[in-house]
Design goal:
Helix 1 packs across helix 2. The longest helix has 22 residues, at 21-42. The protein is an alpha+beta fold. Strand 3 and strand 4 form a beta hairpin. It is 44% helix and 30% strand. It starts with 5 loop residues before the first helix and ends with a helix. The protein has helices spanning 6-17, 21-42, 86-92; strands at 44-47, 51-58, 61-64, 71-74, 77-84. It is built from 3 helices and 5 strands.
């Protein structure tokens, strides 16, 4: 089963909502920009009905270089995690 492409998602939403594809694409871009801004500012962003984006900090750690097996140090970094909401879990199961 193939996953939907961005173009297919936009087309589907435009058809079901009676909107132009360009308007739907602009809404997706605006949502992505809003989510990034809010996660950076507040540390989290909830998308009702889907889940939550949350900023997390990873500690520095040791790892291995796959090609040589040599031990390397991996620096600490900030990343974003997505947690699926209960409504989505229930809808999919």
């Amino acid at each position: 089963m193939a996953r939907m492409t961005q173009t297919e998602i936009i087309s589907n939403l435009a058809d079901s909502g009676g909107c132009k594809k360009t308007d739907v694409k602009a809404m997706f871009e605006a949502l992505a920009a809003l989510a990034a801004r809010e996660v950076k500012k507040n540390g989290e962003f909830t998308i009702p009905g889907f889940g939550k984006l949350k900023k997390t900090h990873r500690k520095a750690r040791e790892g291995r270089k796959p090609a040589t097996g040599e031990t390397i140090k991996i620096a600490a970094k900030t990343t974003v995690k997505f947690t699926v909401g209960k409504a989505m879990k229930d809808a999919v199961s």
